[in-house]
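Q: What would this chain look like folded?
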Amino acid sequence: MTDNKELEYTPDIVNLTDDEGNEYTFEVLDAIESDDGRYLAMLPIYDDPQKTLDDSGELVIVKVGEENGEEYLYPIEDDDEYDFVADAFIERLQDLYEIDEQ
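A: My prediction, written as structure tokens:
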């Protein structure tokens, strides 16, 4: 007797709210930890299929910080740090996703 187990894909979904109260939903595609911190590569998720089609498909890369025991995400403002992390994500994800390097 064979045991047929199906692998289920369960995406890691993150909901974020900006300073103006607008909510955004992202799927976390990958995470990298380095000496400088932890980073996430995400893609936006839309309720409206047309918005999904209109989206550029560009990865959203953020840094994970911690304050008072709570994790928060913030943009990487240092260009060299961003380029280093973006290159690492592209290298890791290019076999799974079609990535245009610009």
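The chain has two helices and five strands.
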